[in-house]
Design a protein that fits this description.
Blueprint: E1 2-4, E2 7-9, H1 12-35, H2 42-55, E3 59-60, E4 72-76, E5 79-81, E6 95-104, E7 107-116, H3 122-141, H4 148-162, E8 166-167, E9 173-175, E10 182-186, E11 203-206, E12 209-211, E13 217-219, E14 226-228, E15 234-236, E16 239-244, E17 247-250, H5 258-263
Antiparallel strand pairs: 1-2, 3-6, 4-6, 5-14, 6-7, 8-12, 9-10, 9-11, 11-16, 12-15, 13-14, 16-17
């Protein structure tokens, strides 16, 4: 491992460690997606997440991070990111964005998904689809020798093509490895061909945060929960990714991203 301009480059063996952490995150999110239902509290989801992470021999990345009290972020409806899990009861027709991190042998995985509880308005369904599609567009746009700006541009272009959504600019993706948040930043808006070069051993957390209305946000009095100022709803999807000569390897996807990448006609770089 060496550092260039603060960017951490992992060996293949260290990436394997990140894959182990990523699988814990992926399995935890699948467990939560299957379990979440109206009548649960966001605190119930958090307890299940912590049990699942610790049961896999891992440590929750989020718990205690800068004082954050939960093992997941659970952001409901107009809450975009960093929602603190607690006694809020989930209702039929809510959407909840679940952000999860885990540490295995000092290596981090970080991913997020947005789940609808029952029937939600069509515009919210389309928002969720557009946000997830933008995540995969960003993943596929990365590659060895390309630049972080290529990812940012692909995310932005995908969202813009899907409709008149707002893209958060103040909250971005990031490098990941021996710490959860590392350089470089991965904005969801940007110019192709700009930013740090993608090289073997670089790992990034790509995470579009997209809203139905204006992208202006506010932080609640808990100093964590980010909400839209206009009260319109949000979606958030994230994966931790690295790239090899063959293509992307999605460290937090259970299949490494193979199925989704194949459907896009993109290569797969996992092992």
């Amino acid at each position: 491992m060496f550092r260039e301009r603060g960017i951490e480059i992992k060996t293949p063996e260290q990436l394997d460690g990140m894959r182990r952490a990523g699988l814990v995150v992926g399995r935890t999110l699948e467990t939560l997606r299957s379990a979440v239902r109206p009548g649960m509290t966001t605190g119930d989801l958090d307890a299940l997440a912590e049990d699942t992470i610790r049961g896999a021999g891992a440590t929750p990345s989020f718990k205690g991070y800068l004082g954050f009290p939960g093992s997941i972020c659970a952001s409901v409806n107009d809450e975009v990111v960093h929602g603190i899990p607690g006694d809020r009861v989930l209702q039929d027709g809510d959407v909840v964005s679940i952000d999860c991190g885990a540490i295995v042998d000092g290596w981090h995985g970080d991913a997020a998904t947005t789940v609808a509880l029952g029937a939600v308005p069509e515009d919210v369904t389309r928002l969720m689809e557009a946000t997830e599609e933008a995540l995969w567009a960003g993943i596929a746009a990365g590659g060895l020798g390309r630049r972080v700006g290529d990812i940012s541009h692909a995310v932005e272009s995908s969202v813009r093509a899907a409709g008149g959504y707002g893209i958060l600019e103040d909250y971005v993706g990031h490098g990941i490895g021996s710490a959860m948040h590392q350089p470089p930043n991965v904005p969801n808006i940007g110019r192709a061909g700009k930013g740090p070069k993608i090289v073997p051993g670089l790992a990034l957390a790509i995470e579009p945060m997209v809203v139905l209305g204006d992208p202006a946000t506010a932080t609640l009095e808990d100093d964590w929960t980010v909400v839209t100022r206009d009260g319109r709803w949000a979606a958030h999807f994230e994966h931790s990714v690295t790239w090899t000569e063959a293509g992307p390897w999605v460290l937090t996807a259970l299949d490494g991203g193979q199925q989704r990448l194949a459907a896009m006609g993109a290569g797969y770089g996992g092992r």
